[in-house]
Structures are given as structure tokens and as C-alpha cells.
Design goal:
443 residues, alpha/beta, 8-stranded mixed sheet, 4-stranded parallel sheet, 16 strands
Amino acid sequence: MHAPATPIDIDLLIEARWIIPVEPAGQVLEHHAVAVRDGRILELLPSDQARQRYRPRQLRTLGDHVLIPGLVNLHAHAAMNLLRGYADDLPLMRWLTERIWPAEQKHVSHDFVRDGTLLACAEMLRGGVTTFSDMYFFPDAAAEAALEAGMRAALGVVVLEFPSAWASDADQYLSKGLAVRDRFKHEPLLHFTLAPHAPYTVSDATFERIRTLAEQLSLPIHMHVHETGEEIERSLSEHGVRPLERLHHLGLVGPELIAVHAVHLDEGDIALLARQGASVAHCPTSNMKLASGASPLPALIAAGVNAGLGSDGVASNNRLDLFQEMRHAGLMAKLTSGDAAALPAEQLLHMATLGGARALGIEHETGSIRPGKSADLCAISLDEAETRPCYSPLSHLVYAAGREHVTDVWVAGIARVAQGNLLHLHNNELKARARLWQNQVAL
């Protein structure tokens, strides 16, 4: 007889009623466990085997829960949490020119961005989001906030042609933003993108610099593209081509491009995105709220375009809620395509996890539950009256459950939310900061 193997010491063992690893696609595992050591997933295996094989310092048993990868918010303006509800019920250009840009010019500062981003991190973590891709001023302040929250973030080196409190012109936006990247590039939770605001706010000369930097530094390009019909008309008038075609001529449409919104696309645009291997950040709630339109997402997916989900900022959404985005994306796709089978739950969860990670170039690190990846995980309770009975946990994640059912969240194996409570951020302090900023903005 062989002596029983000595159990392996690990940091954490999480057992769950269901685990949906996202890779391989469509797999739903019952009564399985995830073994975590040094912040990384060591193994995914049946719970009874896990208890024999491992000796965890911490055991978390989730009875009627589904465990999924941490959600990836592919497009946010996190600091704008301090402008929640400030400019509702306006179309995009009036929303920007009459309310948002004047408010930003008056109030945005390092402290504004740090406090607003902390508030956003708290909201996202409690909703199961472990990674967010941000586009805003003072990325150094956003970096400080993300690190304090213990969240994974892809921070944009934002670029515009006009001045703000952060920079005076495109050259300064780039130089200051790249200096922030250099300062924080060794932080394992922080990643960076080049983030020109949009084709209508950035010149050809600046785009050429951005293309060169993207190639030299291997950075994604995170940009609003084809958000409104007005944007396309303006490009045709000023440049003689649609915005995506202009970007293609400038060498910016490729695997590094994250085309945010991508609402007004024709067949040629879709073929171009697919052919060049670009990704799309779909923001259905913001697009509906600003009446920007409905992205042809089923056609994009059918063409092979990688897609992720974004919330946009709360000033044009009011929530940083990826469960809402999954549901809205699915319902919008079914409504606009006339096909009830369009974008099934499996595809929507993929968009909210691995699709977003792939767009950011960090799919080796997060986005699915696989050995070797970071233990970025989210547990959702399906043991409530509104989630019973449960015939399909995958379907429930999109159509029945919500962020209020998130109980536990880990980032790189460290618990950030436990039994619904934030562990490293203090609600009362965050609410006090929000009140102080509200009093200033409302003056």
C-alpha cells in the first residue's frame, strides 16, 4: 500500500456550488473548487479531491453560489462618479458642451480624480468588477486610487487638442501621461493604454504620434469611435471619409484598437474591424441613455470581432454595473436583430470577462479561471427568493441575478469584498468625500 500523499499547503481554497470558468466556453462545473497560492490559480478540481490534495490557510465554502472570473469593465471614466446625475436627459453633444466640459474645466483636479476614482472602485468591487479600463485626466491620481482599492486598472494616457486642468495641448497630454506610465509601470495591478478621446478631438499629426508610440510601447489604443451619426457626418465633411476609414489610413485600426461604442457602423466598417483584428467596447446603457443608437453587436460578433462590455462614466449611465450591461446588451441585441437567440448568456459573460481582458492584452493574466492566471474572482449568491428556482446558473447571471447578489470578490487572491462588505475601503469616508464634492459642484 502507498502512504497517502502529504497535503499541499496553499493560501486559499474556494468551494462553490457552481463554477463557470469561461474557458472552455460554455462549461459549468458543479461542486468544484479553486486552489490559490501566491495570488494565482493553482488548480480547478472537484471539491472532494481538493480537500484531500490541499491544506489551505483559508477555506471559503460557497453553498449556493456561482463562482466566475472577476468582471472587466472595458470602458469607464471613473472619476466622473462625482458627477452622477449631474447632466441627465440630454443628447451627447449638448451633454458634453453645455454641462460636462464646463463642470470639468471648473472642478477637475488631482483630488477630484482621486476621490471620484476611489468612489468608483468601491462601487465596481461590490459589483464584482476586478478590472477597469479608464479614460480620464490626472491618471496619476486614478493610479493611486486603484492601488488603494486593490483593483486591477488599465489607465489611459488621455489625449486631446484643447487644454484642460491636466494639460495644455496634445504634446503635454502625451508627455505627462507617459511619465505617469513610467512611474507606475512596475505595479502588477496597473496597465496602461493610449487614450485619444475621439477622431473629432484629435488631429492627424497627433494620431501619427500615437500610432508610433503604440508600436514602440506595445500599448492598446482606447478611443471613442462612431458613437453618433453627427460624428460621422462631421468626418465626411472635414476629411471626406468616415472616422474609421480615416483612422485606418493613419494606421490606427489593428489588434491594438479598442473602438469604444462603435454604434453607427455599416458593413464596410464591420468588415474593416474584423479584418484588422480590432476590438469593440460595447456600452449599451450609455448608448441608450444618450440616445446615441444601438450597436450592431450581433453582426460584429458574427464577423469575428472581439467585444467587451463597458459602463462608460456614471454621468452618462448612473451605474458602474456590469450585470446591467450584460442584460442590456443581450436585450438590445435581440430587439434590434429580431432574433431571440442573438447574444446568448454564454457570449455575454464572455464579453464581460475574457473579451474585455483580451481587448486590453491581459488575457494571460485575467478574464477566465485557468491555472497560472491571477485569482481575480467573483462569487454570486443564487440562494435568494428572486433567484429561485435555478435551472441554469449561466442564464441567471445575465437575466435574474444582479450586482446586489455579489458576496465575495478577490483580486490577485486577496479578498476585497467578503459577504457583501468592502474590506479595504471605508464607506463612511467615501460618502463624506462625495458630499464635499457635491457641495462644490452644486454651487
